[in-house]
Design brief:
Elements: H1 3-10, H2 16-27, H3 29-34, H4 37-44, H5 48-57, H6 63-78, H7 86-103, H8 107-119, E1 122-126, H9 129-143, E2 150-152, H10 155-163, E3 169-174, H11 181-192, E4 196-201, H12 207-210, E5 214-217, H13 229-250, H14 254-266
Parallel strand pairs: 1-2, 1-3, 3-4, 4-5
Helix pairs in contact: 2-5, 7-13, 8-13, 9-13, 10-11
Length: about 270
């Protein structure tokens, strides 16, 4: 039974506050999937306990269980009656991801982020899981324009690094949901040390975005598939935008730097 039918079935048993939650969910399903309990609390003015109690009345173990059910329904609906071959659907999805992410770019925030990268003494990149791997790729991309960056995926090492930072340092935190606890904890410690924080995430209301000086948004639809190619592509696109913006603002001779990088590895090829 989908969420609308569940709500209709239980509606008369709900309290006044719970009915407000029900109405909000039925009208804002995507906000629920990609948001947190804070999303509901800010829009409906209810407490955590009321949201959890409402979720359980519908038969879920809690709010996250409700979110997963909503995401499953959305994913199933998106896969029904496709008129294209699956490989065309994949291509369309990736193209849409780039366009959607591009539409979320705020030029002012982007320029401020580039300025922070330009002015920082040391630059770190924090992420775990798939986002951690994106961070490693980003550090390699930055190396090609002359920036030596430390990308760390181990939360223990992240914490140690964060504790040693100063207000001259910058951390770029990468998390698709913006709710990754390990990344959040490390960024929070870095912030306490005085470091500036840039986050790359798809949710401006997320916990990580809330402690960041600047948030650059990604676009991804599948809540159940955060490790998808589309999700990673949206993150890499933002990374590439930062790099190109840094080159322009700082007059970087990117061709010359790439030539140096290429020549440094040519001797490692078997056939020259």
């Amino acid at each position: 039974m989908n969420i609308d039918n569940l709500i209709k079935d239980k509606y008369e048993t709900l309290t006044k506050s719970e009915k407000k939650i029900a109405q909000y969910i039925m009208n804002n399903k995507k906000s629920i999937i990609y948001g947190t309990m804070e999303t509901i609390k800010k829009n409906v003015s209810v407490g955590d306990a009321t949201i959890v109690r409402f979720s359980r009345k519908l038969g879920f173990s809690g709010f996250n269980d409700l979110k997963i059910d909503l995401a499953k329904t959305e994913l199933e609906e998106n896969n029904i009656d496709s008129s294209h071959d699956y490989y065309d659907d994949i291509a369309d999805r990736l193209i849409s991801t780039i366009k959607d992410t591009a539409s979320l770019i705020n030029p002012s925030d982007l320029n401020k982020a580039i300025q922070l990268i330009t002015n920082c003494h040391k630059l770190y990149i924090f992420g775990v899981g798939h986002s951690g791997e994106i961070g490693k790729d980003f550090s390699k991309m930055l190396l090609r324009i002359g920036l030596i960056v430390q990308s760390e995926t181990d939360p223990h090492f992240q914490s140690q690094m964060a504790a040693m930072m100063t207000n001259n340092d910058l951390v770029i935190g990468i998390s698709l949901s913006g709710e990754t606890k390990d990344t959040y904890d490390s960024l929070q410690m870095a912030k306490k040390s005085g470091a500036n924080i840039i986050s790359i995430t798809n949710n401006n209301l997320s916990s990580i975005a809330q402690i960041s000086d600047i948030t650059l948004r990604t676009s991804i639809e599948e809540f159940l598939n955060g490790g998808s190619l589309a999700g990673q592509l949206s993150q890499l696109y933002v990374c590439e935008v930062l790099i190109r913006g840094y080159e322009r603002q700082n007059g970087v001779d990117a061709v010359s730097l790439r030539e140096k990088a290429l020549r440094s590895i040519m001797d490692k090829r078997l056939n020259n």
